[in-house]
Each structure stands twice: as structure tokens, then as C-alpha cells.
Give the backbone structure.
Amino acid sequence: MPRDAVLTKEEPASRVYESEEDILARQRTKTRRRKRNIWLLRLGILAAWLGSWELTATLWIDPFFYSKPSKIWERLVEWFSIGTDFGSIWYQLWVTVEEAVIGFAIGSLAGVVLGVVLGRSAYLADVLAPFIKAVNAVPRIVLAALFVIWFGLGLTSKVATVIVLVFFAVFFNAFTGAREVDRNLIDNARILGASRLQVMGSIVLPSATSWILSSLHTAFGFALIGAVVSEYAGARAGVGFLISNAQGTFDSAGIYAGMIIMTVVALIAEWGIGWLERKLLRWRPNAGDNAASPI
Amino acid sequence: MAPPLIELAGATKRFPSGSGSVHTAVRDLDLTVGEGEFVAVVGPTGCGKSTTLSLVSGLQPASAGMVRVNGADVRSIPDGVGYMFQTDAVMPWRSVLDNVASGPRFRGVRKAEARARAADWIERVGLKGFEKYYPHQLSGGMRKRVALAQTLVTSPRILLMDEPFSALDVQTRALMQDELLRLWAGSDAAVIFVTHDLDEAIALADRVVVMTASPATVKDVFEVPLPRPRAVEELRLTEEFMGLYRQVWESLRTEVDKARERGAGNAA
């Protein structure tokens, strides 16, 4: 290349074409531009989707059946400013979230405990395997109807449905996590003087934590579904009850509005679980950018 | 006279092998290691060297023969045993400090006291300043140092080492060998060091035990009369060292060939 020749002959070889600041500045501009473009595209997709829906529902299809974004928005505004036909929307929301959270806490705790115990005892796991598989195969969502008969229209029947849904999601992950613990780590701990209980607490549980935490994302989703479906099966309050009522009065905007509220709740919960995950898995090389990042 | 720290006589270990037969890993093994003695065990790959260590550590019971530590038959993990595994066994979710402190913690030492002891050992293995790091942030050699400190903080009287440095690059390995000798010199612990590296065996040990191809038993024992303290790198170049190397290799080679033939037979 002629340029090299020129370099050695006439210019000092140590000529700097770009300084460190230049490189970093270029890098920063690049990331900033990328981030901005991603958000612009996302907004564009959202606008295109909602706009085409609004347009077709105004000109073409019957909004009575399909509703449209502006109507859904009106309904949301109405719920949050005036209230629903059955009282404050915050109260309805509180009822559903309470059911989901209580059921989620009990169900995931039970799932972790049983999963870890069975994961460490091959014998017990062999004995119980067919029962667990059978129960898991039952379409458990149907139990919601049964629980309403057993426990009535109140909190208990909803919590029961949520537990039944959450338990298995967590159980299978805790089971796998506890079973796949590195044999070496256990031997090492035993040599260092750990008792059986200490091995559980300091080796098995932390090892299984990443498995368990990743199951909590799906499990909380199930918790919300369980609460809503269970309210749908029979309740006196809650977002699921609102949706059920909207269906009964052919209010499709109301169904969408309920859906959107639950979506927002799920996203907030997802963010919270992600935060917990990052905090508990700080020791992992790629902590943070793993498992179902909510983008 | 006090009984030797480690005593194996006619020790045998058999496993059920997958195909319905029984595999003998170790057969009629005799080995005695006294206080302050450093014994290296070499042998062809897969011959059952590691099984010998798990017999002494009590992680696996012997099928026949006698295994005694401190004059008592081994039934569970005996007191005062330290074990360094071939692969990383440090807990990835604990910082360096908490990893090293875990031995004392398991044994019921208060947290502050355990951490103080751990900090002392972290300094001794040359990791001062890395107490808060997690294992994944360290290099392979540094993780080995953590494992070494984790084992030594329990002041073991018996140190079992299963190819602890085999995964390290050559320079780091030599460094760790020197480090191990330096740290061990301050104690009177008995060491059994399993390795496939003859250089390493001769440079470190007072005695080198050559094992036969599987099932493993003792073939030859060589005394290593090299003076201590030793500097591993310089030692390798001396006449004495090379003479010993030739002797031990002569003994080991036939076993390695045997193991290789059998491996080829299995593969065919």
C-alpha cells in the first residue's frame, strides 16, 4: 500500500488517527442512536397496530363486537375516575392482587420445599413420580369451579386455585435444580464439616436458586391467571369478576380494559421478580442479562 | 509408638459396573503415611488413584481390607482430613472470604472468628485484596488458591489432593507447587498427592508410589532423597532429579502401555 510508504518516509510513524476519547465518544453515540431507534420502532409498531384497529373498527367492522382503542380508553378513564358499577377500581384490583399474591407465596413455598426434598431423595421421588405426573396432567384450571363450590365466593376459593397452578410450575424447577447439584460441591462441603442440614442450606438451595427464580416468572403469571379465572368462575369482586360482568352485558371494551389492567400488573410483577433475581444471583457471571429479560 | 496417620492394608474397592458385572477399582492396596510425610501417587489414567483418596477420606467405604486414619477404622469422614478436588469445588455463590470461612462456619465457629481466620489464610495464599470477589471473577490459578485456603483453614492433619493443579497452565502450576510446599512446610500434615505428572510427583514428594493399571495396587515405591526446602523449577534441571525421573518412568511406562492396550482393545 502506498500509504505505508508515505508514512515511513515523510510522516512520523507515531501519528495518532484517533484518540481514546474519539473511540469512546463514537461508541457512546452508537449506543445512544441504537437505543433511540429501538424505541422509535416500538412506538411505530404500537401506533400502526392501534391506528389500524381504530380505523377498521370505525369504517368497516362492528365495534360492538370488536370494540376499538378509543372506546377501551374511555372505559379505563371511566373506571379510574368515576369507578366501576361495583365500586372503586382500586378495590377490585386489590382483591385480585391479594388473591394472587397469597396463593403465589403459599404455592411457591410448597413447591420449593417439596421440590428440594424430592430432588435430594431419589427414593421418595421414585415412589411419588406417577402420582405427581398424574396430578400434573389434570386440567387444574377446572378445579376453580370445584373450589367455588367447596370454599364459596370469597378469598379462599381463589387462593386455592392459584396455589394449585403455582405449585407445579415451581415444583418441577426446584426438583431439577436440587437434583443437578454438583456432586463435588457436596463432597467438598462434607469434608469441610457440613452436616446434612448444612449441605441443604449452603449447597443445595443456592444451587437450585437460579432454577427456582426462573420458574417464579412463569409462576406469577399463573397466579394472576388463576385469580382471574377463579373470579370468573364465581366471585363478588375482582378484575376477573369485572371481566365476567362485562361479558354478561356485551361490553367488549370492558373485557379489553380488564385485560389491560392485568397486563400492567403482570409487567410490574415481572420487573419485581427480575430485580429480585439480579439481587440474589449477583455471584453469577452474567447475572442480569439472563432468563426472560422483560426488555 | 503412635500409629501412623494413614494406614491402608489390603484395601479393596469394588463397584457394580453398568453392565451387570462388578468392577474392581482398587485391589489389595498397602500404603502407610506418617505425620509430616508427603507421598505422591502416580499411575496410568483411570486406574483408581482417586478411589484411593475417597477411601481414606471416608467418602466411600472399602469393600475389603483395612483403612485406618489416626489408628481408627474409617467409617465416616474422619476428623482432620482436608481434600482438594480435581475440579473446582469452591461455592460460586459465596465471596472468596465466605468460601474460605465456610469450613470453620460448618464446624460451629462464630462468624467474626471464622472470617478472621479466613482473612489470615487468604493473605497467606496471596489473595489479599480479593476477599470480596466471587469465584467467577478470578482466574483458574486464583480459584485454586481459594480452594487451598479453604482446605488449609481447617488445619487438616491429613491432606488429600486429587490432581489439584492439572487444569492449570504450566507456569501457574509451577507457581502453585512452590506455594503448596511453602505452606505445607509450616505444618506437620501428612499429604497424599495424586497426579499423572511425574515431574510434579518427584518435585513435591518424599516418596513416589507407582500404581499398576486398573485394578490399581502398589507396584513400586521410590524414595525421593532431595533436600528441602525445594525450589521446584530449579530442581527439575539437576542430575539427581533426572536420574529419579528415569527410574520412576521406567516403572510407570509398562503400566501406561498396559492401560493403553486395554483402552485400544475396548475401543476396537
Q: What stands out?
A: The longest helix of chain A spans residues 20-59. The two ends of chain A are 46 Å apart (CA to CA).
